[in-house]
Amino acid sequence: MTASFEPSPRPQAAAPAVAAHHLIKHFGDLEVLKGVSLEVEEGTVTSIIGSSGSGKSTLLRCMNLLERPDRGELAIADEAIRFTRNPQGDIVGLDRRQLQRLRAKVTMVFQQFNLWPHLSVLGNVIEAPMRVKGLSRRRATAIGEHYLERVGMADRRDAYPAFLSGGQQQRVAIARALAMEPRLLLFDEPTSALDPERVNEVLGVIRDLADEGRTMLLVTHEMHFAREVSDQLVYLDQGRIAASGSSQDVFDDPRCRRFVAPAA
Ligand code: ADP
Ligand code: MG
C-alpha cells in the first residue's frame, strides 16, 4: 500500500513570501548586483527580463543562497538574514543549519535541468526531501509521486534522465523542485535549452502552477508568456532594476521597450 499524500495548504499571509532588500554582489571587481530590492507576494508570479549578463541568474541564485550576497537583506517567509562581511571577508550571520533551512524554502529549476544522471526520475524527486528534510523513503515517495503526476511524468518514474526528452527532463526537474514544498519556486530560463516543439509543454506546466497560486520568480525570454502569467514584471539592466510593476507598465516603459522591441 502506498501512503497517500495531500499537499499542505498554502499560508494565506499578507506578508511577501520573499523580500530582498538592497542586494549587492561582486565577482572580483565586477559588481553584478548593484543594490537590488524585490518583493514577491504570496501566491503571485514575478518575471525578470533583461539582457544577457544583466545579473538575472545571479539574482535568482542569491534568492536561494546558491550565491551569497555581499550585502543586503533577504527575508524568506518569517526568517530574515542580513549579509555583512567581517574583516576576513567572510559573510557573517548565516550558519549551516540556517542555510539548509532557508534553501528548503526556495527551490530552483535550471535552464539545463541538472537532473542527477545516476538516479531514476523518482530517485531525483525524492532525494532532497529525504536528505534535506529527513523524510522517510515512503513519505518522500508519496510526495514525489504526487508531483510527478502533477507534471504528467508519473508513468516514467523508473526511467533514467538520459532516456527522456529535454521537455520531459524539465518537467521532472519541476516536480523535484515542487517536492520540497517550497515557499518560492525559482525558474532560470526553463525553456531556453529546449527544442522549439518542447517549449510549450513546459510553459503549460508553469502556467498551471501559476493558475493554482504558486509563488514563483521566473527569468525568461518568452515575452508573451511573461506578459500573460506575471503579476509583476521586473526589468533588470546592468545589475539594477530599471523598471518594475505590472506587465503593461513595464512593457510601456521606454527603457524596457528598447530591450523588448528595439526600434527597427
Ligand atoms: P544573466 O543571467 O542576466 O545573463 P548572470 O547573472 O549570469 O547574468 O551574470 C552577470 C555577470 O556576472 C556576467 O558578467 C557574468 O559573466 C558574471 N558572473 C556570473 N557568475 C559569475 C561567477 N561565478 N564568477 C564570475 N563572474 C560571474
Ligand atoms: Mg542567466
TrEMBL record:
Q: Look up the domain of life of the source.
A: Bacteria
Membrane topology type: Peripheral membrane protein
For this protein, what is any one GO molecular function term?
ABC-type amino acid transporter activity
InterPro entries in UniProt = AAA+_ATPase, ABC_ATPase_HisP-typ, ABC_transporter-like_ATP-bd, ABC_transporter-like_CS, MetN_ABC_transporter-like, P-loop_NTPase
Q: Which UniProt keyword terms apply here?
A: ATP-binding, Cell membrane, Membrane, Nucleotide-binding, Transport
The residue ranges of the ABC transporter domain are 18-263
Q: Where does the protein end up?
A: Cell inner membrane
Instruction: Please tell me one Gene Ontology term that the record gives under cellular component.
Output: plasma membrane
Q: Does the keyword Cell membrane apply?
A: yes
Q: Which Pfam families match?
A: ABC_tran (PF00005)
Family of the protein in this entry: Belongs to the ABC transporter superfamily.
PANTHER family annotated for this entry? AMINO ACID IMPORT ATP-BINDING PROTEIN (PTHR43166), L-CYSTINE IMPORT ATP-BINDING PROTEIN TCYN (PTHR43166:SF35)
Protein name, as recorded:
Amino acid ABC transporter ATP-binding protein
Q: Which organism is it from?
A: Halomonas urmiana
